[in-house]
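Sharing a chain and its predicted structure for anyone who wants a worked example. Both blocks are below, sequence first, tokens second.
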Amino acid sequence: MMKKLKSVSLLLLRFCVLVYGNLRDENKIRDLIYKSLESVDNVCVRRSNYTHAVGCQSKLGGQSGVLFRVDKLEDVELLTSSSRFAMSYVPILTSLNLLNREVMMKLRESGKVEGVLVTQSTNATATSPEISSDENEVFPLSQFSTANQCPNSWLNSGEDSHCPSEVIWNPVGSGLYYESFEFPVVFLPSESDVQSLFSCYNEFNEPRSKLEDSYPLCSVKIDTFQYSSGNSDVCMRRSQRARIVGSLTADLTSTDQCSPLGGLNTFGQLTSRTHTTPYEDDSVIVIAARVDANSYFYSLDPLGTQAYASGILAILGVMDLLKPQAAKLEQANVSVVFIAFDAEFFDNSGSIRAVYDMSKGVFPQDPSSYSDYMAELHTKHIRMYLELSQLANATDSQYYAYSTLNASQDEKFTELLDSVSAVVLGKQVERVVLNSSSHSHFPPSSLLSFLREKDTNADQFPAIVITDHKGSFHNSFYGDSFDVPMAFGLNSSVESGAGKTQFTDRISKVSEFIATIVVRYSTKELNDEVGKKEEGTSDVVSMMEEYAYCLLVNVNCSIINSFIDLDIYQEGASSRYVSIADLADTSSVLTIFRYLFYYALREEVDLKEDKLATSSCQPASDTDGTFVYFKIANKSAANENSTGDDSNYLCFRSPVSVSNAESPAFLSESLLRSGKYPAWTESFWSSTFSVKLFTTGDNSIDIMAFTVGIMLTVASYAAVFFAQYKSDTLFVFAPEPLDQTGCDEDARRRAAVGPSGHTLGMRESPATNPAYTNSNSTPSVSRDELNHLDVNVNSPKPLAVNDQNPISVPV
């Protein structure tokens, strides 16, 4: 029996070794089943706000469905309404124009959809769509915006609402960004992925009648699982609990569910002012713009040419124009500061945090973190607030100035707006007065954060928002990735270099317009010509071209490369997405943007005379927050010698600082639950997203295979049980040979048995032993008795007994 078991065990061991040998490469069999697509980072991700979760995600392990091509709205109706299609499907939207509210709501309500794939084809009816790489070709999209029709509508409040029913700021907005979908949505920009997708579809799923009852079918599995669930309050509490459990149990699998969306506000001064020379009331002119852009698809870099970059570029141009006027402004006791607000797409989180910090006396820097720090800025210090927003699409050079009553009633300022705009812009700016009795409304802007937090009403806060629209946006791609520079004449090729375009020329004029107003309004010199050529306007235009190239085309540009201690290994434009607050300081876009601020506000440092800097161009104190020091290549010295000594660079410093743009809601649990501040979070995910193609077989075959497998399993268990139960009968083994020495000894002992009275030793007489059963007195003896008597019943020799009293021994 043991030998048999050993043989079976050896056979099983050999089988396991064979199976392991074939499965050593875990991807070997998987690759035979699935074909993974390459570029699948552009997914709709899960985010949460104060009230609920928005965005998309798959279930744990992914979701699968049969591919269904959608070229037009009728295809959506066919999929969602027809009873012929009763399986789980993954529609392929062949154009971003189909990613609209009507289509997505129908797909969600049908209950048949396990995911959505989106491609952008130049020919939606082609059998094999291709994505054009020709930069000169007109972008096929005419409009695309997943933002709300009233951006940042969370800021609405009664009569002061900036989103009345009669004004639609973003008419093309679908609001999909704020909807929740329990299935993944993925955009596929890669031409190779799109080719693989439609090659599989055309082979197995065309014609469409195959989708009803034919097999195999081309299917896809999408895995975009994320941890977040519920609103931001719920998500943050669960994240905190996971951190506690992980720290107590050393459980490496415990992970946060989400993290706040934040970033960094950037603050710059035209001339440095520290806490030893604080601002006076009504002495500061603030020039502001937003720095972030957004996209419905994560990792699809949002460039925000119109929504964000136009305002930032205008600020950089104003810096260049005002630097020569800094002394004159200082003499007039006017300070000019520049603020770039981050996280503005998420309900003005950055500007709301800035206003909150101002009220606490920690803007732009927390005094507890520095021994020497910048002068604190409060709202009471602001004499004029100028915001630059969406400047690239002015029709016939017509710009609009949304102003509060205090600013518009100032006769001098009104005169400045009219006269300067007519000269610089070629057309007077149209003023839109905003006050409590006006029928006009505030446009979506960072200004709303100041008006919302101001103790007094809007009529007492002097502010102007310069923009290219009155009422509805001119930007048809607000809040999404397709607000691209090529739409404004910028060549997106990194080899193109900086060049003059209508876009850069237009932004340069806006910069000149703002700089002229600031100087004239501050110095009361109505004839001061800030923009005249002898003061460097042509240089400013040239710099605008370089700024635009760095910000929108290639971060590896000449300005950035001039910084000695900054190494950029990236080519092309950089994302403007705000990201989670924990990672904001490492964001490449913020690094690039801040260095442009440093460059525009730089002042040279004499390392031999300046006591605030070390000989290596570093601040003398680590807690000095008044300046940022940096090195810029000295091209003339570098051409003369290449010894690598200090003469190869010049030391500069800039009065620039950063502050947290994370919403005040995340400072405490009470603020988070108060509902007073925006509370946006983004989900974590542990693995990379994946999209895999495979073929689906007939369901009946799967059921039959499963049934046969169950039957074989039951039959095998029954066979094993029967074999074990009948093992004595089924498995007969040959007896082991006897010891010959023992047999000879038994034979000699039996041969010595005496007469009848002593036969077999202890045997009883027939009269007293019931084992004698026959009348002839022939005794019978049991096997047990023979064993007791040590009689070898298997011996081939006959048993030697007394002839007078023979014994019958049954075997």
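Comments welcome. The chain is about 30% helix and 15% strand.
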